[in-house]
TrEMBL record:
PROSITE patterns: HAMP (PS50885), HIS_KIN (PS50109), RESPONSE_REGULATORY (PS50110)
Reactions this protein catalyses: ATP + protein L-histidine = ADP + protein N-phospho-L-histidine
E.C. no: 2.7.13.3
The protein's name: Circadian input-output histidine kinase CikA
Predominant location: membrane
Molecular function GO labels: ATP binding; phosphorelay sensor kinase activity
Transmembrane segments: 183-206
Species assigned in the record: Peribacillus frigoritolerans
4-aspartylphosphate: residues bearing it: 864
């Protein structure tokens, strides 16, 4: 065979072999590429999706724990909204993930996760519902335990799904590596075989071809299969088939290097993203429940500096606006007292001020050798790198952060810092907003109190103007009558006109007598209040002292007698207050203030005030409140609460066994209209108080709403009472625009239904009736309608009972008691002497001034108001005219408790004001305040 044929045969065999080799390599490379693509795009996306689902699930779990335990109403609503959004995102991601799965086990795991998550969602919905219903964390404990167990299963299944996907990804990667190794083995085998074939044919091939083949073989043998980042290349010297082999090999080497580099870059990028996201989430969690900028600054710089590898740092916050704007340092990390950076700076001052002006970050690498800022226990070290970054919110710099490190800041750290600062501006704005809201709230409360005082002053002026207007109207009426009389003299019906005039004068006289009678009645009620309260004051003080087991020397039976006397006195005081309430309603001068109240708190208040009564009588107390009842309601809360208190007190009093039920629901306006007009109300509420007590017969159901009336004499003797409670309830209900009805059968219990409107604007005609005398209007010192929550007295210090008997804070103190009633003097003298005080007494203002002029060392004066000769007002005014008594405490005491007396007493010179009958603890507390001050 000729050389040409041998060469053609040899090259033909080589080309055939190379074709097979290249085909196998291409197939293997495609498989390898497919495996890498599946790892990078498909498997990674599934793992990433599972991680995102878990993060959303974990965040929902945190939010539901926060809403159940710590959140207030607004935070709870925000948490529930976040939970709902996360729930929708999880379901959408599960749906998207389900469409991409191609493995049976993966589908099974996802199906199992969907089942467990559905069960978890049901429990989560129940918890949310109970949270919205206002249940406490104790009520949610069982559901929370069930939720934690299901949460563990859901997380376990999701972790198993993620681990499976990662396992599949690792298996695919291992298969790719095995394919690559097989390809390399085959290439080596093919090369060796090629060498053998070429060696056989080299005898009859051109000698120069052997050199090219040797160079290819040498390159292949020098490949480091453990490190494919750099693969040697075959030099191409010819354009024949050997040259093609060399070029193909070089291309393959380049492809392998590119894939290897992509794999490294991808792994490094994922690690960096995880590092950044973990730390960003950590800092974002730290922001929660921070309500002060200084706390935020301190926690932020303390947490950020170690994450950035910084050795020192400072945090500046913007203060002021315009020319007064500056950045003040609120926190630092590893600072050295006053030397750790500037305390404040303005825009454009220094590098940090320039960065704030330009709203751009700056990194300083070339730091002078003498720049020493980082301090250790051994000395000072100059940093290698400094970063200055602005915190921007809505294109405005709100803060500046400066960090210094002994090493250069990496690109990853800079990226992390930018992401953290992106959300920090929002956080600073939110915290400052909450601080501003709190400040405005306090300012608004102060302004509200000021406006209330102005409103009371305007109301007083309005009443004076109304009186003047009535006087002018009376004069105009008299002029009109004179004109009519002059006109009637010129008419033929002069006699009839005279008769009509006489009749009119008689009517006016009767009206004047009626008005005078009402005035006498009002004065009588006020004076009766004073006359009854004055002896009652002594009874209550002395009986309270006698019944005190720590102070009294009486035996147990005698102390019980004293307690019975005190209890009877309190009942008498309640009766006086009820009678005065009816008097104020009768003359139309009972003040009604319509304001906003929260009906959602009503069941809790009722339970707190009547559960002990139900427990004592061993009867059930049930409160049912419909969901459609509005939370915000406009009425006079004090009168509203007194009506419910009276109705419930009656229900418990007349019920020996069974239950008392309160039903609160939104009333049907058509149903209410059959009892009372419904115009002007935004909505109506119906409150039913049902008991299983003695019941009321049909013929007596109207009688019980009249004053001093009960079902019958036997009822009054058995259960006690004055018969005023239901009368007050109906009268108060009328003042509030509502009504009270009863439905009862004797022996079957009773149901009292209270209809009440929500009146945001109140009633325009309330209070327009002729005003009663101020004595009746204020005779009970606003104690007639005590709300469910006990009313506190201002400026009273509460002292522990045990401490009261251990320490005598009034020892060596002298008190001057000024009172014309010897019973009050006796009671106060004994009570105060028991506290270790020296007592001086005076029966009127003249004696009081004489005692003061004698130079007695008097520490405090108890001044009665109504006294003969010189009353308390004039006495206090004369005392205050003397500069040496300018700071002497004077406490005004009165049993009349007229409207405006407190302000009148303080204006006359009183330091404080206490109404009779006195409560001994209250009086001692007031004395303690003024003697201490």
């Amino acid at each position: 065979m000729g050389f040409k044929k041998k060469q053609m045969l040899g090259f033909g065999l080589i080309l055939l072999f190379l074709a097979i080799l290249l085909s196998f390599m291409m197939v293997t490379l495609n498989n390898l590429k497919s495996s890498m693509t599946e790892i990078v795009e498909n498997r990674y996306e599934k793992v990433q999706a599972s991680m995102e689902i878990r993060q959303l699930f974990s965040r929902s779990d945190r939010e539901i724990l926060f809403a159940a335990n710590d959140a207030n109403k607004e935070e709870r609503a925000e948490s529930l909204e976040i939970i709902n959004e996360n729930h929708n995102l999880i379901e959408s991601k599960i749906a998207g993930l389900s469409g991409t799965l191609n493995k049976v086990k993966a589908k099974q795991l996802l199906k199992e996760f969907e089942t467990q998550y559905a069960s978890y969602s049901i429990t989560e919905a129940e918890i949310i519902q109970k949270i919205k219903s206002g249940n406490s964390s104790d009520d949610l404990s069982s559901l929370m335990d069930d939720q934690r167990e299901k949460r563990t299963k859901v997380i376990s299944t999701m972790d198993e799904f993620k681990d499976y996907q990662e396992g599949v990804m690792n298996d695919t990667l291992n298969n790719s590596k095995q394919t690559y190794e097989d390809m390399i083995g085959f290439v080596i085998f093919a090369v060796i075989l090629s060498i053998l074939v070429i060696s056989v044919t080299v005898v009859w091939m051109i000698r120069s071809t052997s050199k090219d083949l040797q160079s290819i073989t040498k390159v292949i043998k020098n490949i480091d299969y453990k490190n494919l980042s750099v693969i040697p290349r075959v030099p191409v010297r010819t354009t024949d088939e050997i040259g093609d082999i060399a070029r193909s090999f070089n291309e393959m080497a380049g492809s392998l290097e590119i894939y290897n580099q992509k794999e490294k870059d991808f792994t490094e990028k994922i690690s960096e993203q995880n590092w950044i996201q973990t730390r960003v989430a950590d800092i974002a969690t730290m922001y929660q429940r921070i309500v002060d900028v200084e706390v935020l600054a301190d926690r932020f710089i303390t947490r950020l500096a170690p994450m950035m590898g910084a050795s020192i740092g400072a945090f500046y916050v913007k203060r002021g606006e315009g020319v007064d704007m500056r950045f003040v340092k609120l926190a630092s990390f590893a600072g050295d007292g006053e030397d750790s950076g500037r305390r404040e700076f303005r825009l454009g001052e220094g590098l940090i001020g320039q960065c704030a002006l330009e709203k751009e970050s700056k990194v300083i690498e070339d730091i002078p050798e003498d720049f020493q800022l980082v301090t250790t226990g051994l000395g000072e070290v100059n940093p290698k790198s400094i970063v200055i970054a602005p915190v921007v919110f809505e294109d405005e710099v709100v803060a500046m952060v400066e960090l210094a490190s002994l090493e250069s800041f990496t690109k990853l750290q800079k990226t992390f810092l930018n992401q953290v600062l992106d959300t920090l501006g929002i956080t600073i704005n939110n915290v400052e907003g909450r601080m501003e809201i709190e400040r405005l709230l306090k300012e608004s409360q102060a302004q509200t109190e000021e406006l209330q005082a102005q409103s009371e002053e305007l109301q007083s002026q309005s009443e004076e103007m109304q009186a003047q207007s009535e006087e002018l109207q009376t004069q105009a009426e008299e002029l009109r009558m004179i004109n009519e009389q002059l006109e009637e003299r010129n008419r033929e019906t002069e006699e009839k006109s005279k008769e009509l005039q006489v009749a009119k004068l008689n009517l006016e006289k009767q009206a004047e007598e009626l008005k005078l009678s009402s005035k006498y009645k009002s004065e009588f009620m006020a004076n009766m209040s004073h006359e009854l309260r004055t002896p009652l004051n002594s009874i209550l003080i002395l009986s309270e002292m006698l019944s005190d087991p720590n102070d009294s020397k009486l035996n147990e039976e005698q102390q019980e007698f004293a307690r019975v006397i005190n209890s009877s006195g309190q009942d008498l005081l309640t009766l006086i207050n009820d009678i005065l309430d009816l008097s104020k309603v009768e003359v139309g001068k009972l003040e009604v203030v319509f304001d906003e109240m929260n009906l959602s708190e009503l069941p809790e208040q009722l339970h707190r005030n009547f559960d002990h009564v139900a427990k004592k009588k061993n009867i059930d107390f049930i409160i049912e409140k419909s969901k459609n009842v509005p939370d915000i309601f406009f009425t006079d809360e004090q009168r509203f609460q007194q009506i419910l208190k009276n109705l419930l007190s009656n229900a418990f009093k007349f019920t020996e066994k069974g239950s008392v039920t309160v039903q609160i629901k939104k009333a049907d306006e058509e149903n209410v209209a059959q009892w009372i007009q419904t115009k002007g109300a935004s909505n109506w509420v119906e409150i039913k108080v049902t008991d299983t007590g003695i019941g009321i017969s049909k013929e007596k159901q109207k009688l019980i709403f009249e004053a001093f009336q009960q079902g019958d004499g036997a009822t009054m003797r058995k259960y006690g009472g004055t018969g005023l409670g239901l009368s007050i309830c109906r009268e108060f209900a009328k003042l509030l625009g509502g009504w009270v009805i009863v439905d009862s059968e004797e022996g079957q219990g009773s149901t009292f239904t209270f209809f009440i409107p929500s009146m945001p604007e109140g009633f325009k005609n309330v209070g327009e009736a002729i005003a009663a005398s101020p004595e009746v209007a204020a005779a009970n010192h606003d104690d007639s309608a005590v709300p469910f929550e006990s009313q506190g007295e201002p400026d009273v210090v509460i002292v522990d009972e045990e401490d009261r008997y251990k320490v005598k804070p009034f020892c060596n103190k002298t008190v001057l008691v000024v009172d014309d009633d010897h019973r009050n003097i006796f009671a106060l003298k004994n009570a105060l002497k028991h506290e270790g005080m020296e007592i001086l007494t005076a029966e009127n203002g003249y004696e009081c001034l004489e005692l003061l002029e004698k130079g007695n060392n008097i520490d405090v004066i108890l001044m009665d108001i109504m006294m003969p000769g010189m009353d308390g007002y004039e006495t206090m005014t004369r005392i205050r005219e003397q500069s040496k008594f300018e700071d002497l405490p004077i406490i005004a005491l009165t049993a009349k408790a007229m409207k405006g007396d407190r302000e009148k007493c303080l204006k006359a010179g009183a330091s404080d004001y206490v109404s009779k009958p006195l409560k001994l603890d209250q009086l001692l507390s007031v004395l303690r305040v003024w003697l201490t001050n």
